[in-house]
């Protein structure tokens, strides 16, 4: 049979195809390709390679198996369990602009299926796999991906340099003294172009060679070898397959182990099998371990076998083939492994058999449902019925043939010789996935030495660190609200006051609008930036001064701590709650009722010193929005009364019903009038403000036929309203006394009363509008100074940013409390109406910018209880489990609804499960621990702010505990422990409320743990001092949970040295997840401390040697 590609210009089997050499010589001979050594390479090295061949070239050698390490930038997963990673160099500072290489991973191919997982963006991983060309783009098809440790990151680039030097200098050929290098594995590598039999082996690795594959073209063959250009062993394999491959007459071929047992091969056996597959001498049949020979004599049998109804194939269907401008022809195609068989459908032609080796393909530009294929410089087009078929065929053609067998072999080799998989890596899916992501877990094992008669106790410590989805979700919603509030104020100013002719007021109004437009621009740019942000799902500390991140907490993470698989601690870690991009030239926000005696901050003092008591009242945002909401409520009530007069009065024709409605309407109108009078009496200088807006007033407001422009002075409006009520009251009394039988007179009387009602309501409505306009004018009058106006809107922007960060931290803490508690009914406050407890403990110094950060945080937490309310609601979807909090309200009254699954809602305390509003009890503490804290505590500094904060924290905590004890919801042991600890804390704070007194921190953490609270640990960036505090608390929990004394020693697994309690903490700091937090923020796994700073840190806060540096940006 002449089964050839002549119909479409290709070459196949038969007279022409049988003589065709499928393995055309390339610039780099095959002798230099190794399929056994996973050669280390960098992303930059691979990107500089040519996209024409599946090789990584170093000098005269080329490699196909690659070990690549880098940071994941993007992840794509399709429905076929195929995951595509875009990886950049792991050491780059900004991965968003770095060059990227594609790594492809097929589901179910991992060496350790129980650890197979999809890694998220930001992880640094190591991938081992084969280079492959897909659509003319070089990619890595990986059979194993794992997280890397700190040490691997440090030495990876050195490995790449060593590999380049080793092979670029041709050391395998020129030097024979490197038998035990990472590239030799105890073997002598053959010289290029010379057939060298490697006979030595090591236990457990017989018949497998890791040497570089010799040059097939130059291999000497036996003199009487019936297969030219093949080695002796390859000829034996071919002969055995030819003689026994079709013994069963069913096309199954011969198994690889049968061949191995028969010919007793050398160490290059699998390499020779692979070479014969590459050359198209043999093909896979039943599976990837069965082979049969291909020659002109059995091509027809192979085609018949492929077209049997019982033969299972990878792809089949009707295709149209075109080549070199010839007409289209229809064929039935079947693909199995690397064999593609074609039979003519509607014309007469010989069947065709392809061996899909060295086959390139890409989407055709002539048809959307076609692939263009090239083999040995011959091109043709294969067109399918639909686009789905194109994708399926492209996938099978891309991974067909011997590559599956080759991958299994490489997996077995890697599994046998690679080191044990580290327990460092991503944890399995957790119940926190609705609001947490990017899990990173690290586990350490210690043996606790007991007495001589008691065996050692094994302790397994596990830290798990998460990022949170809320880092950007809540700030984006808060920015939209801030944008709305600012827009409303600008529009109201323009609507009510744009006609002002007073030059001074007009200049102030223009200045107001400029500042409002500036804040609106900041909100708009921040929204656009966050919506298009492609970086990690948290705000890195290196971005803490970026204005677009103003509303986002810095370095927000959640961390779990477990001992022997039992969760014993959970923490929220974050940078300082502050508006860092707005800087601290005049300090931070200052809570005026608390800070009025503190000289530390100047911003509020300067602002308030320039205002009169009346101006202070009128610029207070709490009172401003309260009055505004009252006026909006009154206008709604007036509108509703007007509707009822027109509608209900006509519906009810009975005299008794009409009289009842009249009385109700009159009573409600009087109520509105009294509320307006109360508002006027509480509004300083309101008479002068309204009078200034009248015609001829100080503002010289140009009349625009607008209802918001007062038509008369405030006194005149009040007198007119009084007259309206007297007239209305008189008419109602007269109507009650008259017994009007005449229907026409009765109707006239009712219309007269209605008209009086409408006149009265119009007067009330106009009065409300006049007060609104006067309120806007009060701001103009109070903030005539440019500095005062700038400070006012700066504080407004700062407040919005702090509120956004505070709500994000509080929401994260509440969700962490709910999801980390196995039984919410066991919480100490679950049976009471007491709110959950959240402790924010920061480690900032009362010096320089950090003092402004303290003021920002303390000010926000002090007012938070009066500003924000939370509630839990059932989630709207049973499918989408991601938590999307709903936020509404205005600056001084924010309401946050947190969706929870129904199974969590029923576990909540009674009030919370019913959706009642509450605000968690948030207590702020601060303790400076660095060199600036020492300076603040000296005679040249002032740490009175820190002392005042901690005394205030003690007062709030004492009140919370007293309230909780009154409910008698705690067990006796907890009550005794709380009473003892709060007494110790009172004594400690009274003696020394500052000056690095770490006893405060330890006592507060222990109380918080007993009260089932959540702890937020923070410092300036949330990674250095925060890490020291967190690991110190983990050590305290370990000591408390396991009953360990400070003198007991540990022996760490696989390490001979002994450890005491603080050394365990050092191990957590050195090998735990906190150094990973540093790397995620600054690109290096190092804490930011200088040798100078180390002298001032308390001993408990000093990191281990080798884990800190002063030469990283924060």
TrEMBL record:
Replication protein A C-terminal domain sequence ranges: 197-289
Where composition is biased (Polar residues), the residues are: 203-212
Q: Does the keyword Flavoprotein belong to this entry?
A: no
Amino acid composition bias (Low complexity), ranges on this chain? 213-222
| Region of interest (Disordered), ranges | 1-29, 203-222
Its domain of life reads Eukaryota
Molecular function terms from GO: phosphatidylinositol-3,4-bisphosphate 4-phosphatase activity
The record, for Gene3D superfamilies, names: Nucleic acid-binding proteins (2.40.50.140), Winged helix-like DNA-binding domain superfamily/Winged helix DNA-binding domain (1.10.10.10)
Is the keyword Lipid metabolism in the record?
yes
InterPro entries named among the record's database cross-references? INPP4, NA-bd_OB-fold, RPA_C, WH-like_DNA-bd_sf, WH_DNA-bd_sf
Q: Name one Pfam family in it.
A: RPA_C
Keywords in alphabetical order: Hydrolase, Lipid metabolism
Gene Ontology annotations for the cellular component aspect, listed alphabetically: cytoplasm
Similarity comment text for this entry = Belongs to the replication factor A protein 2 family.
UniProt protein name = RPA_C domain-containing protein
């Amino acid at each position: 049979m002449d089964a050839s590609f002549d119909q479409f210009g290709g070459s196949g089997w038969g007279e022409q195809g049988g003589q065709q050499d499928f393995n055309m010589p390339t610039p780099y001979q095959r002798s230099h390709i190794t399929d056994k050594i996973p050669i280390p390479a960098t992303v930059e090295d691979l990107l500089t390679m040519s996209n024409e061949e599946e090789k990584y070239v170093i000098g005269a050698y080329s490699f196909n198996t690659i070990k690549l390490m880098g940071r994941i930038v993007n992840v794509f997963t399709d429905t076929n369990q195929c995951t595509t990673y875009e990886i950049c160099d792991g050491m780059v500072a900004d991965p968003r602009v770095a060059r990227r290489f594609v790594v492809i991973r097929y589901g179910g191919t991992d060496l350790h299926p129980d650890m197979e997982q999809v890694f998220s963006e930001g992880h640094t991983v190591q991938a081992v796999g084969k280079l492959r060309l897909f659509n003319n783009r070089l990619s890595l098809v990986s059979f194993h991906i794992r997280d890397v440790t700190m040490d691997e990151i440090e030495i990876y680039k050195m490995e790449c340099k060593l590999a380049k030097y080793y092979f670029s200098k041709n050391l395998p050929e020129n030097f024979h003294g490197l038998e035990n290098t990472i590239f030799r594995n105890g073997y002598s590598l053959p010289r290029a172009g010379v057939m060298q039999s490697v006979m030595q082996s090591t236990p457990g690795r017989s018949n497998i060679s890791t040497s570089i594959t010799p040059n097939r073209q130059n291999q000497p063959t036996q003199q009487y070898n019936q297969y030219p250009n093949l080695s002796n062993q390859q000829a034996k394999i071919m002969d055995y397959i030819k003689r026994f491959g079709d013994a069963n007459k069913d096309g199954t071929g011969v198994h690889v182990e049968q061949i191995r047992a028969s010919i007793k091969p050398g160490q290059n056996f699998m390499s020779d099998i692979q070479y014969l597959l590459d050359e198209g001498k043999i093909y896979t049949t039943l599976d990837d371990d069965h082979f049969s020979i291909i020659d002109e004599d059995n091509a027809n049998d192979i085609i018949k076998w492929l077209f049997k109804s019982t033969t299972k194939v990878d792809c089949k269907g009707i295709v149209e083939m075109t080549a070199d401008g010839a007409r289209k022809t229809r064929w039935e195609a079947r693909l199995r492994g690397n064999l593609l068989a074609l039979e003519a459908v509607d014309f007469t032609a010989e069947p065709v058999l392809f061996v899909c080796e060295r086959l390139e393909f890409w989407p055709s530009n002539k048809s959307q449902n076609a692939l263009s294929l090239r083999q040995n410089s011959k091109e043709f087009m294969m067109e399918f019925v639909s686009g789905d078929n194109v994708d399926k065929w492209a996938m099978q053609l891309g991974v067909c043939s011997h590559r599956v067998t080759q991958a299994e072999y490489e997996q077995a080799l890697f599994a046998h010789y690679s080191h044990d998989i580290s327990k460092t890596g991503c944890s399995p899916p957790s119940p926190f996935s609705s609001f947490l992501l990017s899990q990173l877990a690290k586990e350490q094992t210690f043996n606790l030495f007991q007495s001589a008669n008691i065996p050692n106790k094994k302790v397994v410590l596990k830290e798990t660190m998460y990022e949170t989805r809320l880092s950007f979700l809540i700030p984006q919603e808060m920015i939209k609200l801030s944008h709305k509030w600012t827009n409303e104020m600008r529009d109201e100013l323009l609507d009510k006051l744009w006609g002002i002719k007073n030059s001074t007021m007009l200049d102030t109004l223009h200045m107001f609008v400029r500042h409002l437009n500036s804040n609106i621009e900041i909100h708009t740019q921040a929204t656009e930036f966050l919506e298009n942000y492609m970086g990690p799902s948290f705000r890195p500390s290196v971005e803490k001064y970026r204005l677009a991140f103003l509303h986002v907490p810095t370095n927000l993470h959640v961390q779990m701590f477990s001992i022997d698989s039992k969760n014993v601690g959970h923490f929220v870690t974050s940078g300082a709650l502050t508006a860092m991009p707005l800087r601290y030239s005049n300090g931070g926000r200052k809570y005026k009722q608390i800070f009025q005696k503190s000289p530390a901050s100047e911003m509020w003092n300067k602002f308030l010193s320039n205002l009169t008591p009346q101006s202070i009242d009128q610029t207070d945002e709490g009172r401003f929005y309260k009055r505004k909401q009252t006026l909006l409520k009154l206008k709604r009530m007036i509108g509703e009364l007007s509707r009822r007069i027109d509608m209900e009065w006509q519906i009810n024709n009975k005299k008794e019903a009409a009289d009842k409605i009249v009385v109700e309407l009159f009573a409600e109108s009087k109520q509105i009038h009294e509320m307006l009078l109360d508002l006027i009496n509480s509004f300083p200088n309101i008479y002068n403000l309204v009078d200034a807006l009248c015609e001829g007033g100080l503002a010289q407001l140009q009349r625009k036929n607008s209802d918001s422009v007062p038509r008369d002075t405030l006194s005149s409006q009040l007198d007119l309203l009084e007259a309206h009520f007297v007239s209305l009251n008189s008419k109602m009394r007269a109507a009650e006394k008259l017994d009007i039988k005449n229907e026409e007179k009765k109707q006239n009387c009712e219309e007269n009363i209605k008209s009086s009602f409408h006149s009265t309501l119009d007067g009330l409505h106009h009065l409300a509008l006049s007060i609104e306009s006067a309120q806007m004018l009060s701001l103009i009058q109070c903030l005539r100074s440019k500095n005062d106006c700038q400070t006012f809107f700066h504080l407004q922007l700062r407040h919005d940013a702090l509120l956004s960060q505070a709500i994000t931290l509080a929401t994260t803490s509440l969700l962490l409390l709910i999801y980390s508690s196995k039984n919410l009914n066991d919480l100490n406050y679950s049976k009471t109406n007491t709110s959950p407890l959240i402790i924010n403990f920061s480690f900032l110094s009362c010096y320089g910018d950090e003092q402004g950060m303290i003021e920002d945080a303390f000010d926000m937490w002090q007012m938070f209880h009066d500003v924000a309310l939370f509630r839990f609601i059932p989630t709207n979807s049973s499918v989408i489990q991601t938590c999307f909090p709903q936020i509404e309200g205005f600056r001084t009254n924010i309401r946050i609804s947190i969706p929870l699954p129904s199974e969590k809602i029923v576990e909540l305390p009674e009030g919370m499960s019913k959706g009642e509003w509450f605000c968690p009890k948030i207590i702020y503490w601060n303790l400076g621990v660095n060199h600036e804290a020492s300076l603040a505590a000296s005679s040249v500094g002032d740490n009175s702010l820190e002392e005042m904060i901690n005394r205030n924290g003690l007062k709030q905590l004492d009140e919370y505990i007293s309230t909780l004890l009154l409910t008698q919801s705690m067990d006796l042991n907890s009550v005794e422990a709380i009473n003892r600890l709060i007494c110790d804390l009172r004594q400690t704070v009274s003696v020394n409320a500052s000056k690095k007194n770490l006893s405060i921190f330890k006592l507060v953490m222990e109380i918080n743990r007993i009260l089932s609270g959540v702890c937020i640990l923070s410092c300036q960036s949330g990674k250095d001092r925060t890490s020291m505090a967190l690991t110190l608390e983990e050590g305290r929990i370990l000591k408390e949970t396991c009953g360990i004394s400070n003198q007991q020693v540990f022996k760490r697994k696989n390490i001979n040295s002994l450890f005491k309690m603080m050394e365990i903490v050092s191990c957590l700091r050195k090998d735990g997840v906190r150094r990973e937090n540093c790397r995620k923020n600054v690109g290096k796994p190092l804490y930011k401390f200088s040798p100078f700073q180390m002298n001032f840190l308390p001993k408990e806060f000093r990191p281990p040697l080798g884990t800190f540096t002063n030469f990283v940006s924060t």
